[in-house]
Write a structure and sequence with these properties.
By secondary structure, the protein is an alpha/beta fold. It contains 14 helices and 11 strands. It has 2 domains: 172 residues, P-loop containing nucleotide triphosphate hydrolases (Rossmann fold, 3-Layer(aba) Sandwich), CATH 3.40.50.300; 101 residues, Helicase, Ruva Protein, domain 3, CATH 1.10.8. The chain is 47% helix and 15% strand. Strand 3 and strand 4 form a beta hairpin.
């Protein structure tokens, strides 16, 4: 039974007004990077954490900070370093000599938007503490568990070029991120505008245009976005083509993929496609929504073999072949 698409469309028209406001505010500070800003909004609307990868100086941190300024919410930036301890992140128990009891001191993780800067600079213990918070939406300090406030979103950055003194994220941890974004260089025109803005005496300021309650309300509308059965099967086909490429006539990929995408990829792809449709003010998902978000959902979930490395094939090349081969409904 088809839901009332017209009613969903009307609901989206009302609830998505803030999207333009956020985009306008962010563009006061950030030049270009529409792809990154849009994907951050998808993470916000689909309740999914995001990993941003790119060389230093591409305004990854600035974009996240600017986005957080447009929301009346608590933002916390945590710089990951090799000597960071889990207690520095989640908090710890402090002994009070006066009354002989322990009290809980909460860490910076107790915020709505967390920017985990250079996440791969910290050892596994710290990363796993962050990932418990990401997955369970709660933190355990001593014997007590504390629920994290909604919305809770982790936006992590990592630098792909410098591997010295870094701890690569294990695959199971990377899989917890809904999207992995590859942030590229600006165009000549954009870079010229960046120079002009950053060398001005007056720096632009951003206004908060949305409350956390409005985000939670918008998330509920995103869940109502209609996904036809043909689109659901299309999502399944894309994910299965990474696991069984030969079943989709992609025999050349058989020896290049060690592990295909997990069921978490199917869920993330559907949710992100719904959020993408919401940003386009549409009450239903099209194959184009799935295709445009597919790379960001699958980029970090398909593990290639040594053979692929020897042939100089990247994960993106493999996913591109999958997206081009799987039949669009």
């Amino acid at each position: 039974m088809n839901p009332d698409i017209k009613a969903i469309n009307e609901k989206i028209q009302q609830e998505s007004v803030f999207v333009e406001k956020i985009m306008n505010e962010v563009s006061k500070v950030i030049v270009g990077q529409n792809y990154m800003v849009e994907r951050l909004l998808i993470g916000l609307l689909a309740n999914g954490h995001i990993l941003l990868e790119g060389v230093p100086g591409l305004a990854k941190t600035l974009t996240v900070k600017t986005l957080s300024d447009t929301i009346r919410t608590k933002f916390q930036r945590i710089q990951f370093t090799p000597d960071l301890l889990p207690a520095d992140l989640i908090g710890t128990l402090i002994y009070n000599q006066k009354d002989g009891a322990f009290s809980t001191k909460k860490g910076p993780i107790f915020a709505n938007l967390i920017l985990a800067d250079e996440i791969n600079r910290s050892p596994a213990k710290v990363q796993s503490a962050l990932l418990e918070a990401m997955q369970e939406r709660q933190v355990t300090i001593g014997e007590n568990s504390f629920k994290l406030e909604d919305p809770f979103l982790v936006l992590a950055t990592q630098n792909p070029i410098e591997q010295e003194g870094t701890y690569p994220l294990p695959e199971a941890q990377v899989d917890r991120f809904m999207l992995k974004l590859s942030v590229g260089y600006p165009s000549k025109e954009e870079e010229l505008e960046i120079i002009r803005r950053q060398t001005k005496k007056e720096q632009a300021t951003v206004n908060a245009v949305i409350s956390p309650e409005e985000i939670i309300k918008a998330r509920n509308v995103v869940k109502d976005v209609y996904v036809d059965e043909k689109i659901e099967k299309y999502v399944i086909d894309i994910v299965f083509a990474t696991r069984e490429p030969e079943s989709y006539g992609l025999n050349e990929l058989k020896n290049l993929i060690t592990f295909g995408a997990s069921p978490r990829a199917s869920i993330a792809l559907t949710l992100a496609a719904k959020a993408h449709a919401f940003l386009r003010r549409r009450g239903y998902v099209t194959p184009e929504d799935v295709r445009s978000i597919g790379m960001d959902v699958l980029r970090h979930r398909v593990i290639l073999s040594y053979e692929a490395e020897a042939e100089d094939m990247s994960t993106e090349d493999v996913i591109r072949k999958v997206l081009n081969r799987v039949e669009v409904p």
